[in-house]
Amino acid sequence: MSADAVIGDGSSIWHLAQVRERAQLGVNCIVGRGAYIGTGVVMGDNCKVQNYALVYEPARLGDGVFIGPAVVLTNDTYPRAINADGTIKSAHDWEPVGVTIEKGAAIGARDVRRAGDDRGVGDGGSRCCRCEGCAGVCPRRGSASQTHRLGR
Hints:
Shape: globular
Strand content: 25-35%
CATH architecture: 3 Solenoid
Low-confidence stretches: 124-130, 135-152
Structural class: mainly beta
Number of helices: 0
Radius of gyration: 16 Å
Helix content: under 10%
CATH class: Mainly Beta
Largest sheet: 6 strands, parallel
């Protein structure tokens, strides 16, 4: 964990997790084993980032956001190893674009959010059909054959 990160009271950062410079975690957040929180990422209060999730800068997570195991929030709209002229691409050759996940949203295990994606709209967990990517059984519908995703 960087000494330049701001960690809210009651927050926990587990083994092998990396929290980079200028990251801001709200109160009572949990960052799981092996997770990565990038430089300048902002997390609201009561967020959970599960094991091996990758939250690249400049992502923004609202209060009460759940990021499932191995989720990736990317930051490069057009990822490439080299520039058009064949030279190695450096940090100065592209502009990071963040992913915004709003209050109460849940992003399910192994989901990938592309740079600039802000579809993660939540409501604090008061309804089902708010968990993106997990394809779990919807408890409100009660059928194992029906899954829940935001917007469906």
